[in-house]
Amino acid sequence: MAAPLELSCWGGGWGLPSVHSESLVVMAYAKFSGAPLKVNVIDKTWRGSRGDVPILTTEDNIVSQPAKILNFLRKQKYNADCELSAKQGADTLAYIALLEEKLLPAVLHTFWVENDNYFTVTKPWFASRIPFPLSLILPGRMSRGALNRILLTRGEPPLYHVNEVEAKIYRDAKECLNLLSNRLGTSQFFFGDTPSTLDAYVFGFLAPLYKVHFPKVHLQEHLKQLSNLCRLCDDILNSYFRHGPVAFSSMNRNQ
């Protein structure tokens, strides 16, 4: 019998199995590849000090970061890309790099830096799911981490401050969404009728932006104008997550 695969991650809301993009990437890939994950969502029993999830735990391994987790699953013969050509594999890597450079900063800004969104939606949601006194500390730490990540990728001299890069962040994100929409076209998934790694990444990055109810919605409004990307998110939710995330548990390992 294969060793159990347990994924520690943030939980769901707004019809999503997780509101956390990187957790969603792994959960979607597991669905596409048939990996039998047991999902342990962070709750009041959590004893971690950081929000560094998702984390995949097996009998012999602890793996973090989506790319490393997906590579681990592929080595365990759970491969959602086995039917892709070499060119499609190269395109997958190029589009994932584009997502991380052009779209992720805007997603992070929407959740963690935009004040109205952070104080009315993001902070209360995350704080309600972690134990006191960590609930007073961790959301702010995650917000600062998101800001640092944005500045690391987009804060090129002389644009060192987030206010100076905000316009560029959202301009780049909208261009990225337009490119994704054009690439998807009328296809069910990015490479035909079967979902792959790229679909998992696009779903993970877009679904929270699409579904979470924010007071400031400028990027969300642009996404909702791209009906094929919204349809992709809805189709994945309806086809793969109608009955829950993967195999669900509210009890979490100590991290």
TrEMBL record:
GO cellular component: a single term: SAM complex
InterPro entries, alphabetized: Glutathione-S-Trfase_C_sf, Glutathione_S-Trfase, Metaxin1/3, Metaxin_GST, Mito_Protein_Transport_Metaxin, Sam37/metaxin_N
Pfam families: GST_C_6 (PF17171), Tom37 (PF10568)
Record keywords, A-Z: Membrane, Mitochondrion, Mitochondrion outer membrane, Protein transport, Transport
Any one GO biological process: mitochondrion organization
Main localization category: mitochondrion
Subcellular location(s) of the protein: Mitochondrion outer membrane
Coiled-coil annotated spans: none
Domain Metaxin glutathione S-transferase: 173-236
Domain Mitochondrial outer membrane transport complex Sam37/metaxin N-terminal: 23-142
Record-stated family: Belongs to the metaxin family.
Name listed for the protein in its UniProt record: Metaxin
